Automatic annotation (TrEMBL):
Organism field: Hymenobacter gummosus
Protein name stated in the entry: Imidazolonepropionase
Binding site for Fe(3+): H86, H88, H255, D333
Cofactor descriptive note: Binds 1 zinc or iron ion per subunit.
UniProt-listed Enzyme Commission number(s): 3.5.2.7
Pathway: Amino-acid degradation; L-histidine degradation into L-glutamate; N-formimidoyl-L-glutamate from L-histidine: step 3/3
Main subcellular location of this protein, as a coarse class: cytoplasm
Gene3D superfamilies: Metal-dependent hydrolases, Urease, subunit C, domain 1
Function of the protein: Catalyzes the hydrolytic cleavage of the carbon-nitrogen bond in imidazolone-5-propanoate to yield N-formimidoyl-L-glutamate. It is the third step in the universal histidine degradation pathway.
Designated gene of the protein: hutI
Any one of the GO BP annotations: L-histidine catabolic process to glutamate and formate
């Protein structure tokens, strides 16, 4: 006898399953919009996992027991929990002062070259205690959860010395243990050369390779990332560093083509990177090459709130990427400099407005493809039996309202691992 359901959501106006694509690759091309929506549906959970999803007409009443918690979600949309696949969660202080300078016309790279930007957050982060950093990370995770994020990637990268970088990774892991949102860690020690290595980026990378990477366990910190950009690391230095990280068993990520087309995305895809992030300056031809080099598995993570916040005209040509067959995901890039926003819905909306994504494509980009971008596709990103019961009840009856109510948070209820978070 199958066990009764523990939690049952019934009479949903729409269930956005995100199911129906190829099992072995992120969604690309027309598949990105071609996942299944069930009208008047249900989602049933058993313990921590999804047990069944379908139309109300197919609900097995025999699995409703006296202890089944039944939630009527008439007039509402059900969908998988959002997957936030690129954040810089742990940092000290903020950069409201620099925001004023940016509004007066100073550029992101000028501020960085003058010792501000990332380096000013490094000073504040080094000066903060573990407890201060943890409390700040927990505060931000709670904010993400309210927006419906149930899995989140968190990068280090504001320590820029061996001891502080290790501390930031530990803080992110501790934050993951203290609250329900699942945290996936990435090592971004190679954010920019540490202030002690000014003008010596290759020496700085050698220090990370010698002193930090050997201390990390890929089962706890599965990814290594690098910022490939003028003022950060060259394509050649990035290649050498990522190759070594791959030999040590880490998955690879890169921040590339954010402000210039240097070829970092292409290089990382050739090394089998799980994602290439930013891509605002990646051309349509470049995207086709990344799609081919990444064999359909490298996801382009687009961060539309960053050009918005940096007052930049150029946005990644997401529509062209999709037409070139490159899988895309969306993220906020939450960080204190280029995007202090946790509103992934706003990122989805700006992607529709400025990158040419359709609502269905954008929804896949914040769920299943975002899960692929952090290797979590077996656990989350779609509503399918056996996956973790991470789901959202939304206060709208139709998914087309999601990009429409600009800046609003549509989340009414969040379920993580079968637990309804009130
Ligand atoms: O992803 N581009 C590099 N790093 C971050 C910004 C970090 C900062 O400005 O503090 C990003 O945009
Ligand atoms: Fe980033």
């Amino acid at each position: 006898m199958p066990q009764p359901y523990s939690l049952l959501f019934c009479h949903a106006a729409q269930v956005l399953t995100l199911a129906g694509g190829p099992p072995d690759k992120p969604l690309a091309g027309t598949d990105l919009a071609d996942w299944r929506i069930i009208e008047h549906g249900y989602v049933a959970c058993q313990g921590e996992a999804i047990a069944a999803v379908g139309p109300m007409s197919e609900l097995d009443a025999g699995r409703i027991g006296p202890d089944t918690r039944i939630v009527d979600v008439s007039g509402r949309v059900l969908m998988p929990g959002l997957v936030e696949c690129h954040t810089h969660l742990v940092f000290g202080g903020n950069r409201a002062d620099e925001f004023q300078r940016k509004l007066q016309g100073e550029s992101y790279l000028d501020i960085l070259a003058a010792g501000g930007g990332i380096l000013s957050t490094v000073r504040k982060t080094r000066a903060a205690s573990d407890e201060e950093l943890l409390q700040s990370a927990l505060h931000h995770l709670e904010g993400f959860r309210r927006y419906g994020v149930t899995t989140l990637e968190a990068k280090s990268g504001y320590g820029l010395d061996a001891a502080t970088e290790l501390r930031l990774l530990q803080v992110a892991q501790e934050a993951g243990r203290r609250q329900p949102v699942r945290v996936v860690s990435t090592f971004l020690g190679a954010h920019v050369p540490g202030p002690e290595y000014k003008g010596r980026p290759a020496d700085y990378l050698d220090m990370l390779l010698a002193e930090v990477l050997p201390e990390l366990n890929p089962t706890e910190v599965p990814f290594v990332d690098i910022f490939c950009e003028e003022g950060a690391f060259s394509v050649d230095d990035s290649r050498r560093y990522l190759q070594r990280a791959r030999e040590l068993g880490f998955g690879l990520k890169i921040h590339a083509e954010q402000l210039h087309e240097l070829g970092g995305c292409q290089m990382a895809a050739e090394l089998g990177a799980i994602s290439v992030d930013h891509c605002d300056y990646l051309s349509a031809e470049g995207a086709a090459q990344v799609a081919a080099a990444g064999q359909g598995r490298t996801v382009a993570v687009l961060l539309p709130l960053v050009p918005l916040y940096l007052r930049q005209e150029k946005y990644a040509p997401g529509r062209q990427f999709i037409e070139a067959g490159l899988p895309v995901a969306l993220s906020t890039d939450f960080n204190p400099g280029s995007c202090p926003s946790k509103n992934l819905w706003l990122a989805l909306q700006v992607a529709c407005l400025k990158m040419g994504l359709t609502p269905r494509e954008a929804l896949a980009a914040v769920t299943l493809n975002a899960a692929w971008a952090i290797g979590q596709q077996a656990n989350c990103g779609s509503l399918e039996p056996g996956k973790r019961a991470d789901l959202l009840v939304l206060s709208v009856p139709d998914y087309r309202e999601l990009p429409y109510w600009l800046g609003e948070n549509p989340v009414a209820q969040v379920v993580i691992g079968g637990q309804l978070e009130e």
